[in-house]
Amino acid sequence: MRVYATVLVAAIVAVAGVLFGVWWAPFVACIGVGAIVPRARTAVPAAAAIGLVSWLVPLAGLQLRYGLGPTATSLAAIMGFGRAAVVPIVLTLLVGTLLGVVGGWLGSAGRTVVVRA
Q: Which of 48, 52, 56, 66 has its CA 20 to 30 A from that of 98?
């Protein structure tokens, strides 16, 4: 039960942080997940999901409110991908996922170092 509560609280903190403009909030929240969840096999995928969701929710909200099509198409053209608007969105979600993975891994690695010492 403690694992589920930790993941839920970290997800809420990460989403709220990103919504308030703290783009690195999933990293910090997932460090806590990695430090509290006892197994890295569970902590790192959970942290990846938290990172993905914490950047997906604001993007979905912006899509519903304003529509991301023209902005994503322009950004894809600047990046050299022509009119492939999905590329900037996928890369943005990849950044959020990587923030979560690295935070979860760092927290888990730090927990094992502290426990062994």
A: 66
Encode pLDDT of 73-101 as tens digits.
999 999 999 989 999 999 999 999 999 99
Q: Sign of torsion, CA 103 99 10 5?
A: negative
Place of tokens 């991301």: 68
CA within 13 Å, CB half, 94: 6
Residues 6+ apart with CB under 8 A from 24: 17, 99
Q: To which residue do tokens 């890369």 refer?
A: 91
Q: What share of the chain is helix, strand, coil (3-state, %, to 5)?
A: 85, 0, 15
Nearest to 92, CA basis, from 67, 55, 60, 61: 55
User: What are 52-78's pLDDT values in tens digits?
Assistant: 999 999 999 999 999 988 989 999 999
Sign of CA dihedral 43, 47, 50, 52: negative
